[in-house]
TrEMBL record:
GO terms for molecular function: UDP-glycosyltransferase activity. Keywords: Glycosyltransferase, Transferase. The keyword Glycosyltransferase applies. Gene3D superfamilies: Glycogen Phosphorylase B. SUPFAM superfamilies: UDP-Glycosyltransferase/glycogen phosphorylase. Belongs to the UDP-glycosyltransferase family. Residues 252-273 are annotated as: Disordered. This is UDP-glucuronosyl/UDP-glucosyltransferase. Transmembrane segments: none annotated. It comes from the Eukaryota.
Length: 454
């Protein structure tokens, strides 16, 4: 068994670069596919170097993973911890409404003993863990396994949350300005309406352990921090984290997903994509607005109405990947009939990566989830930002600071927006001269976000 302690962990880290040394790396992501997928991308990259991976989650999440490439599957062991025994077999955030996610966190904390049993029996050389498992560093040290917090949040979001325990921020107004430890100019902070939605989660009012505490404990307890980021995007935030923590902070790149197969390859018979591509091929270059808000952002009826009417008002052709809803929220009466000649509303799964990679797409109206941002910027697609929950507002502020994305104008107190603000934001970013800076910055970021070698 490996000896505990920082000296040993750094010695093992140094061995990773040695061609003749192969490691056993255990990975334990949070139970959300926006976290699981980047962890799996990193697992594949480790496996390509010949390292053995134990990829750990619950049975339903393991079952939902995409099929591994044949050359890598022998090196990636999919480890199933016990089911969570939640209603409706919920095992990820996509299985639950937002207000029920605290119950998922508590059930996730209940995996501690089974994870410990696996680690004791398999003795990996390293354990990479996610923010929710704030208890992992103490467990790993007791077993003698070096550990790293692999954050799918960017360095700006981590820097905003910080590593102060207890956190000095106890009131909503404390979260609408950058924290006291940020010494450079930045607007990265929550807006008032975002704090009102997230305050209980941030401070632990609806959970016995807050998000801020989980992240701060993970940052303080681990041997090293790996961040889904790069120096080219946020050097100042990475340096801040290193100085705050006094430990290695390693940007590992943006982990863009593998490019989709060519149209004449294995999925060329996918009629859904072929029909979508035929429609995209008919549109002028860089004219189409792609609209998607991920699996967790759920616009209200008023928000959905203004988005739809804003798309209509903009005059652009659009493709809207509109996730099916279990509630009674509906598109405005007559919207689909009025826009049928220039727009597509897709109520089921859409091939997002292929759509964003098509040269007719000129803008992406997005919730600012980081995986979607990465997918768009690897193709140089301009961003119109409409954040809804979790870290999305912090992502949007970082992108605004860097002039990479432009946020739809909203009321600071309640977050409401109008069809006019949606339409004007789209026009600015996609075609107006004053929005050229956003188009240029997206193109400049394309090689940074799309380089899998990073």
């Amino acid at each position: 068994m490996a000896a505990s302690g920082t000296d040993h962990s750094l010695a093992v880290a140094g061995r990773i670069g040695e061609n003749d040394v192969k490691l056993h790396i255990a990975m334990f992501p949070w139970l959300a596919f926006g976290h699981i997928q980047p962890y799996l991308e990193l697992a594949k990259l480790f496996a390509q170097k010949g390292h053995q991976i134990s990829f750990i989650s619950t049975p339903k999440n393991i079952h939902r993973l995409p099929k591994l490439p044949p050359n890598l599957s022998p090196l990636i062991n999919l480890v199933k911890l016990p089911s969570l025994n939640l209603p409706n077999d919920a095992e990820s955030t996509s299985d639950l409404p937002r207000e029920k996610v605290p119950t998922l966190k508590k059930a996730h904390d209940g995996l501690r003993d089974s994870l410990s049993d696996f680690l004791r029996s398999s003795t990996p050389d390293w354990l990479l863990f996610d923010f929710a498992a704030y208890w992992v560093p103490d467990m790993a040290r007791n077993i003698g396994i070096p550990n790293a917090y692999f954050s799918i949040f960017n360095a700006a979001s981590l820097g905003f949350i910080g590593a102060e325990i207890p956190d000095y921020r106890t009131e909503p107004d404390d979260f609408v300005v950058p924290p006291k430890w940020v010494s450079f100019r930045s607007t990265v902070a929550f807006r008032k309406y975002e704090v009102s939605k997230n305050f209980d989660d941030l401070t632990g009012m609806d959970d016995d352990v807050s998000v801020c505490y989980r992240i701060a404990k993970a940052l303080r307890g681990c041997h090293a921090v790996a961040v889904r980021s790069c120096w080219e995007l946020e050097k100042e935030w990475l340096n801040l984290l290193r100085d705050l923590l006094g430990k290695p902070v390693l940007p590992i790149g943006q982990l863009p997903p593998a490019p989709p197969p060519n149209d004449n390859e294995e999925d060329g018979n996918d009629e859904r994509w072929r029909s979508t591509k035929r429609w995209l091929d008919l549109q002028p270059k860089r004219s189409v607005v792609y609209v998607a808000f991920g699996s967790e952002a759920v616009p209200s009826q008023d928000e959905l109405t203004e988005i739809a009417l804003g798309l209509e008002l903009s005059g652009f052709p659009f493709f809207w990947a509109l996730r099916p809803r279990s509630d009674s929220v509906e598109l405005p009466t007559g919207f689909e009939d009025r826009t049928r000649e220039r727009g597509i509303v897709c109520p089921s799964w859409a091939p997002q990566l292929k759509i964003l990679g098509h040269d007719s797409v000129g803008g992406f109206l997005t919730h600012s989830g980081w995986s979607s941002v990465v997918e768009a910027l690897q193709f140089g697609v301009s961003l119109v930002l409409l954040a809804f929950t979790n870290d999305q507002g912090l992502n949007a502020k970082l992108l605004e600071d860097k002039m990479i994305g432009y946020s739809v104008s909203r009321d600071e107190n309640d977050g409401s927006f109008t069809k006019e603000s949606v339409a004007e934001s789209l026009k600015l970013v996609v075609e107006k001269e004053e929005g050229k800076v956003y188009r240029d910055q997206a193109k400049e970021m394309s090689p940074v976000f799309g380089d899998r070698g990073v």
